[in-house]
């Protein structure tokens, strides 16, 4: 295999592992010049395998879609138990925002089974499809541009739409939770939508499985301390538990039956 092809495979593997890789770090890892890495990234971007950001790269649409489908298939049981626990903390006849992601889709399925009379505002066409079968629900889907990878609706119009409402709850997820408590995602447009949901809800719930703790992503959504409760399937490490306690955030652990 030509050295360039081998290098491309290693670059993709490193970006996939770390979610975002700076050019300088890739150059050190592969023992080549930053100029070589820039040329490699440009070619991989042309093939839609990577997406370039200032100073580095993330996965491109083709690999991101592949990874999203793989991620969605992982930890299904854990996400279902997290979703059940969240549904127990949403009363009947409540109004709520539901964002994007496989955990939030699981929340939608749990709500349909457990709760009546809900008003749900979502930027997730999959969530809208799940909850729209309930005749006692009011389901509102935001305006905006649909992302083909996950059915998320994003954009300036989405934020403007959300700002018209004030709900009882916002139920959100995140792509990663940094050690300092920062909530991270890959798409700044989606982050803007989730921030609007946070600002326009009286109670904020975060649902994240254990794999999200310590996972990197490029865009900061906010802090875990801005939520009223965090729902997960394993207790976070001691430092994170202390951070949550100091911020007055409840950490609720779903019983996964193990």
Tell me what you see in this structure.
This protein folds into two domains: 3-69, Orthogonal Bundle (Arc Repressor Mutant, subunit A), CATH 1.10.10; 74-253, Rossmann fold (3-Layer(aba) Sandwich), CATH 3.40.50.1360. Helix content is 43%, strand content 22%. The protein has ten helices and 15 strands. It has helices spanning 3-18, 23-30, 34-46, 61-73, 76-88, 102-114, 125-131, 156-162, 188-199, 238-247, and strands at 21-22, 50-53, 56-59, 95-98, 119-122, 138-141, 145-146, 153-154, 167-172, 176-177, 182-185, 201-207, 219-223, 229-232, 250-253. Helix 2 crosses helix 3. It starts with a helix and ends in a 5-residue tail after the last strand. One of its GO terms (molecular function) is DNA-binding transcription factor activity. Residues 4-59 form the HTH deoR-type domain. This is DeoR family transcriptional regulator.
The H/E string reads HEHHEEHHEHEHEEEHEEEHEEEHE
CATH class value of the largest domain = Alpha Beta
Number of helical regions:
10
The CATH topology of the largest domain is what? Rossmann fold
Low-confidence stretches: none
Number of strands: 15
How far is it from the N-terminal to the C-terminal residue, by CA?
Answer: 45 Å
Class computed from helices, strands and strand pairing: alpha/beta
- Strand percent estimate: 15-25%
Spatial shape? globular
As laid out across the biggest beta sheet, the strand order is: 6-5-4-9-12-14-15
Note the main sheet: 7 strands, parallel
Query: Mind telling me the C-alpha Rg?
Result: 19 Å
Mean pLDDT: 89
The count of domains is 2
- Considering DSSP H and I runs of 4 or more, what fraction of the residues is helical? 40-55%
Q: What is the architecture of the largest domain at the second tier of CATH?
A: 3-Layer(aba) Sandwich
